[in-house]
Write a structure and sequence with these properties.
The protein is 43% helix and 16% strand. By secondary structure, it is an alpha/beta fold. β6, α3 and β7 form a beta-alpha-beta unit. The longest helix is centred in the N-terminal third of the chain and has 40 residues. About 7% of the residues have low confidence.
């Protein structure tokens, strides 16, 4: 009798082991089939990078693409056992000529593949910056403010608050003299906040500015348009994909700014700060 129970136990163990191994084998096969399917479909989910446009000493930044991360995608999908595009994990496919490696070139536009532009306020003694900020807050618009060292010194908390609100601060050094040591002092303050980059402004090509700024690991912008009067009328003539538009002035600009923003948005454009519109 004892021997019969032993034999029955061995048979039960063998049958159970066979069923377990069969299930493990089935799961392995399903996972292998899933991995094969992921690899076969990876090309259907590629977004190729849009490369930067470089002409002589100017650059229009590119846009990074993305490709499927097969290992991470497989890890997520094998938990459910089948292909589900909602669980795809991507990794960045970078452009060949990254903006960070071309700081010796003038940025003349954002990438034109997206319907985006940037409004850049050049702050002077005529500007009521608080009124501009109020309008930007009201319309939930992010912009860029180019300021000089005197303004930064007298309005430090205001500038930090603008950066915390995801606006971009541009560096005009001391009265737009980039040879002045205030430029480096300003750059240090700006990039020690949550803003990653430092930006210089040149109305036209200027070797002194581009040389100093690139040596100080900064970008140099040449705007698409500089508007000093009749801002609403001139904005209508200068908005395009990737436009970098500098706005100067006092009460006329402030009185028309909300209408300008609403008009740009009505044309299907997104208004972004330099830090965002130049992102690859």
């Amino acid at each position: 009798m004892k021997q019969s129970f032993q034999i029955l136990g061995i048979i039960t163990l063998l049958v159970g082991s066979f069923i377990y191994n069969e299930k493990v084998g089935l799961v392995s096969k399903l996972n292998d089939d899933l991995l094969t399917e992921i690899k076969e479909k990876q090309n259907d989910y590629i977004e190729k990078p849009i490369e930067a446009i470089i002409k002589n000493d100017t650059i229009i930044p590119g846009i990074n693409g993305k490709i499927m991360d097969i290992k991470k995608t497989y890890t997520k999908m094998k938990q459910i056992g089948y292909f589900d595009e909602k669980l795809i994990v991507y990794k960045t496919s970078k452009v060949k000529n990254e903006l960070k490696n071309n700081k010796d070139k003038y940025i003349i536009s954002a990438n034109k593949s997206k319907k985006e532009l940037s409004l850049i306020f050049k702050i002077n003694n005529k500007t009521n910056i608080n009124k501009i900020i109020s309008i930007l807050d009201k319309t939930n618009t992010k912009a860029t403010f180019f300021i000089d060292s005197t303004f930064l010194e007298n309005n430090n908390n205001l500038v930090i608050n603008l950066i915390n609100k995801n606006h971009t601060i541009g560096n005009l050094s001391n009265k737009e003299d980039y040879t002045n040591p205030d430029f480096v002092w300003m750059k240090t303050i700006i990039t020690n906040t949550k803003q990653n980059n430092n930006y210089c402004l040149a109305e036209t090509k200027n070797k002194t500015i581009i040389n100093i700024c690139s040596m100080q690991d900064s970008y140099t912008i040449i705007p698409t348009a500089i508007i000093k009067e009749k801002p609403f009328i001139n904005i209508k003539q200068n908005i395009n994909k990737g436009s970098l538009i500098v706005l100067e002035g006092g009460s006329e600009l402030e009185n028309e700014l909300e209408n300008i923003i609403n008009y740009v948005i009505s044309k299907g454009y997104q208004i972004k700060s330099l830090e965002k519109v130049l992102q690859e």
